[in-house]
Here is the input.
Amino acid sequence: MSNEQHPDQQSMHWNDMYLLGYTPIDEVHEEFVGLVGRMQTAADAELADLLAEFTRHCEAHFEMENRWMRETDFPPRDCHIDEHAAVLASVHEVGAMFAKGELGADVVRDLVEHLADWFPKHADQLDSALAHWMSKNRLGGKPVVLRRGLQLR
Here is the structure.
């Protein structure tokens, strides 16, 4: 394993476009985005620790959302829970193989890039519906999202 650093790598950063309007989801998503961004630019020697931290984050993050979906009978919960399980299985598999030296940092970086590509779609398509559902069920209304930097027509 090399100590190669990736400072020129484009990294994922939190911005208002990721806001869904349900604070508990927005907070955990900000942490997710931050961890992905850190992994994208980390030195190879830092990847094992960051991937372990990210794995713990995903376990807690997905379990929280899964629990909410079950507790509130969120209608499309099965496909959402299945998607969480598939992502977590990939993260666990790559992490275990990387820890044993069975694959290199390049595979971890490939996983991280897939996560950076996957997350915005997942948040927009599945988590936005969950945020709306949770706001309605827990707060009695629809989520309100204020975004900075949008051009008005």
Remarks:
- The chain is about 65% helix and 0% strand.
- Helices lie at 23-41, 47-71, 77-99, 105-139.
